[in-house]
Amino acid sequence: MAGGGIGVDYSIRNLPRMLPGLLLCVFFGWAALQWDATIHGYEQDFKEATAVLSSVKAGKPAANFADYKQVKEDKYKAALGKFDQGLEKQKPKKPFVLDRGTYEMVATSGAIPFKLKFASFMIQIQMTYVAVLLLIGMLIRNTIGLPAIFQAGTIAARPIIKPGIVILGAYYLWSDVLRVGVIGLLLVVAFVMGTAVMICVWGRKGKVDDGLAGVMAAGAGVCGVSAAVAVAPVVNAKPRDFFYAIGTILLFGTLCLFTFPYIGQLLGMSQPVFGAWVGTAILNTAQLVAAATWYGHQSLLTANIINIVRVGFIPLIVLWAIYYYVIKPAAANAENIQKLNVVQVIREKFPVFILGFFVMVTLNELGFFTQTHRDVLGKDLLKIFFAIGFAGVGLNIAFGDLRKAGGKAFAIGFIAATLKAVLAAAAVMLIGAEAFTVK
Asked: Would you say 25 and 153 are in contact if contact means Cβ atoms under 8 Å apart?
């Protein structure tokens, strides 16, 4: 699950230590959102300027600005009249109009301003606030470094992504969650748990230490860092084992984060299909959410459901580890097997934020949220939470940590995760967008 929050004390006493890093993430998040709003605004200008320019190149005389604006308003009023008469089901959106200076520049010079072209190019290569935060964070961390005063706060910022996941519940109905969730459950059982079991068996046959193989299986199979942390005590993992597994998880997730959106475009994946793919294949919740958000909002909605199902498997991977690394060897050696308190394990390991997500879905089902509410939640609050969290993620991707993955265990974990990603891509494309579309 999310890599952040591990070992962070969220108490009033610890707030002064975390505050500088949290404020840094808030500042970076705010700056990235300003960038995002600017390039998306310019891209709207670019599309409208392109339409104006194509009309000019077609030989039509350019209208003066007042006439151009009036034509737009007349078309909107006509469409609104049809809606009021019941002839159209959807209320028309207000037309987008260029400002006078941009319109006259395009109409007279026959060229689109550079800033609009640049913004359109940034959108095409998906250089949105997600990519900016991750890239700048990585650049800072691996060049000038992150001063010690900021480290605790940037780690504490990463789990702030989770309230954003809770907010997403306002976009779902239970019919969507159950429909996509059932398919997601099949994907999780087949690929996620299958990968974890494969790494356990492969690790034992390859004589990899049980502690390292166990945390690698949980992290690479189920849910990144949190699953590895949950399993570590069961398999008596050493600190070295944990850091090797985390290095593998972060390296694989980082490569996926910066390649999957482009691979998805190359393969012609729709947003729902891409969301299902990253929800199954990317190991770490923060990186999964970042990649899905990068690709598009529909992608995020689908990926979130698959991830919710996957996160729910943390108690099950703990039970599997107890069976495979404790009960099975003890039974083979005729030792006494301590009784396992299944309820206690589930209570301790089940992620609480999932319950918040389910509450939001239920409220939406009951009609509690209007479209205005969803706009505020999705366009404002959700982006704020994600921006702060992604700032923390980027500032904590250190190449030195990625290099901690090594040896045979790294090869097993990386190969298994790659195989899962390839097979999952084929499966979700075969199933198709309709099964994963959140309506």
From this structure: yes
Residue 346 falls inside a structural domain: yes
- Reported as a single tens digit per residue, the pLDDT across 22-70 is 999 999 999 999 998 999 889 888 888 888 888 766 667 667 888 888 8
Q: Indicate if 113 and 228 belong to the same structural domain.
A: no
Question: How confident is the model over 258-312, as pLDDT tens digits?
Answer: 889 999 999 999 999 999 899 888 877 778 888 888 888 889 888 888 887 777 7
**One domain, residues 243 and 119:** no
DSSP state for residue 336 in the 8-state scheme: P
Residues 374 and 281 in one domain: yes
Secondary structure element (H or E) that encloses residue 368, with its range: none
The encoded tokens of residue 118 equal 């640049």
Report the b/e string of 27-62 with b at 16+ CB within 10 A: ebbebbbebbeebeebbebbebbeebbeebeeeeeb
pTM of the model: 0.65
- How many whole angstroms separate alpha carbon 223 and alpha carbon 2? 8
In total, how many domains does the chain have?
A: 2
Element (H, E) at 163: helix 161-167
Where in the sequence is the domain holding 310, given as residue range(s)? 158-436
Name the phi and psi angles at 144, rounded to 5. -80, -20
**62 by DSSP, 3-state: which?**
coil
Q: Which two tokens stand for residue 134?
A: 């991750």
State whether 269 and 166 are in the same domain: yes
Distance, in Å, from the CA atom of 234 to the CA atom of 326, rounded to the nearest integer, reads 8
In angstroms, what is the C-alpha Rg of the chain? Answer: 25
